[in-house]
Design brief:
α6 crosses α7. The chain is of the alpha/beta class and about 270 residues long. The two termini are about 35 Å apart. The chain has a single domain, classed as Ribonuclease Z/Hydroxyacylglutathione hydrolase-like (Metallo-beta-lactamase, Chain A, 4-Layer Sandwich). Bound molecules: zinc ion. The site of zinc ion has 5 residues, from loops.
Amino acid sequence: MLSRILIVTAAVVLWTNPMLAAAEVEVLWLGHATVHFTSVEGKVIVVDPFLKKNPKTPPKYRDLKALGKVDLILVTHGHRDHILDLKELAELSGATVVSPYGFALNMVSLGVIDGEKSIGMNKGGTVSPIGRGIKVHMVPAEHGSNVDFKMPGLKLEPGAPRAVDAGPAVGYVIEFENGFSVYHSGDTAVFSDMALIREFYKPDLAMVCISGHFTMDPEGAAYALKNFLKPKQVIPIHYGTFPVINRTPAELKQAMGNSPIEILDMEPGQSMRF
Ligand SMILES: [Zn+2]
């Protein structure tokens, strides 16, 4: 009798609350390092907005309005191919912008980010700016970070340096309402403290750069995945966007050998649910 009541109650709850029935997170890869997440409760997070001039972004998404509402933007570092559309998307959406502290200071002072909407933080920190069900952990990355003045919304003054240092480069682990967690590596080389990211946050999915030249290559990424990160699944990102970063998911597959980690070889514009 009790079990019958429980089954009926569960059915009523699922029927009256479609969010519970579809308790999944949507991961939409938009090319390069730009990722669009829709949480279980419909909150939208965009990491590293680079769309309008991104040769890998499907034409539909080069119109920033096509993204619909955005609640939160996460920035891994200041290089152009990660923030070219930050100013416009932040203004258009009114989203909160989480970024490394030094980067946030520069971007607020240069008028790229509204100070009221900016959360500057640092590696090791956790914030929940769009509700307690979603945690954003800022984690280390082994890379540089500069703000380039040759960018929309900024002015390159004659004789001034073209770029300024913008604090550390970082990655993120996002924990969603349904327990699913994802690691976005940002741009990085392999570093052994990736094992601590595994130890602390146990990401289910890793979205890692494999391009070589500026970041780890497929062999480096495979080493990191097998020895340090150990996720259930991996989506390779940040490759093939420009001629100089020409490594491929097929090479990652080769380097992973018989590892049980599943490689999800997505196309830009494709989404998956977790
Ligand atoms: Zn970079």
